[in-house]
Write a structure and sequence with these properties.
Layout (H helix, E strand, L loop, with lengths): L15 E6 L15 H4 L9 E6 L4 E5 L5 H11 L10 E3 L5 H4 L15 E5 L1 H9 L3 H6 L3 E5 L6 E2 L5 E7 L8 E7 L4 E5 L5 H6 L4 H6 L3 E5 L21 H7 L5 H4 L2 E4 L13 H8 L3 E2 L5 E3 L1
The protein binds zinc ion (2 copies).
């Protein structure tokens, strides 16, 4: 795949989030994709969902998710904020053990970068999973990664002006629990929640997504599927996500300012709103929401 220009412009001196990928785990194009343009035209392909948090100048670089597109995303991060030596990651936050969110760790190992002590933050079940299963346990054993625990609701102070707080969300708890993240800078706060089964399930656990949106300045939320007509032949109940149409309906009660904070991310290759000229994209935007795009920069 050709490289993409990501996050090159727009970075000022303060801390910022740079979007490094917006696709669901399998990326766009996904394995088996027939649409030829997605293999040849970088403007219609997408990396798996990932954010970088950068604090300039020289203040640090943190990554949210280690995706299968890690190689390209590290290069994009380095174009946005170069450091020596690579990988130059002060912390890598993982949400859960589905391939699009952690499989990129392999590139830190001996067969690739042979990185040294990259701090990797994971909730308890995910941490245990990584410590006890090949090939991940080798990364820890060989000192490529430095596995650090994190706990839901417990704030992690990255430096004097940046804080990250993970919290758990309901999402198919297969090999691990699933985290979402609140990322707090000196002036603004972001929410990164790429994968959830449903807003209603979360509400049963006592958290209303609308309240979470109200408490941040920008919210990157699960937009995997546009509507229920996607994925003919696959049982959608086995892969639950709030569809974008459902979320828009639910969030219609929010004021325009809160709606404009919502950037859908973790977009499946079947989601028609990926196409910038589509009717579906126009509808999302006309209702006051956005789709996250690689290279977007959000000052914190
Ligand atoms: Zn995912
Ligand atoms: Zn998942």
């Amino acid at each position: 795949m050709a490289t993409k220009e990501t996050g090159k412009s727009g970075l000022r001196n303060g801390p910022a989030i740079v979007i490094l990928g917006v696709a669901q785990d399998g990326g766009v194009p996904q394995a088996g994709e027939k649409r030829a343009d997605r293999w040849t035209d970088p403007s219609v392909s997408r990396y798996a969902a990932s954010l970088a948090l950068v604090d300039r100048p020289g203040g640090g670089r943190w990554l949210f998710e280690a995706t299968p597109d890690f190689r390209w995303q590290l290069a994009a991060l380095d174009r946005a904020m170069p450091v020596e030596p690579l990988p130059g990651i002060d912390g890598l936050f993982l949400s859960h053990a589905h391939i699009g969110h952690y499989a990129g760790l392999i590139f830190l190992g001996r067969e690739s970068m042979n990185a040294k002590d990259v701090p990797v933050y994971a909730l308890p079940r995910l941490r245990r999973f990584l410590e006890t299963n090949a090939p991940w346990e080798q990364l820890a054993r060989c000192g490529n990664i430095d596995l650090r625990g994190m706990e839901g609701g417990e704030e992690i102070e990255l430096n004097r002006s940046l804080r990250v707080t993970p919290f758990t969300v309901p999402h198919r708890q297969e090999y691990s629990e699933t985290a979402a993240f609140r990322i707090e800078g000196p002036h603004r706060t972001a929410l990164f929640l790429p994968d959830i089964d449903s807003w209603e399930l979360w509400e049963e656990e006592g958290v209303r997504v609308e309240e979470m949106i109200a408490r941040v300045d920008v919210a990157f939320l699960d937009g995997t599927f546009y509507d229920d007509a996607e994925l003919p032949g696959r049982d959608r109940s086995a892969i639950p996500h709030p569809t974008i149409t459902h979320s828009m309906k639910r969030f219609a009660s929010l004021g325009a300012a809160d709606r404009s904070k919502v950037y859908f991310i973790h977009i499946n290759h079947t989601n028609k709103a990926l196409d910038r000229e589509s009717e579906e994209r126009r509808r999302v935007e006309s209702e006051g929401f956005c789709l996250a795009e690689e290279g977007m920069v959000f000052e914190l």
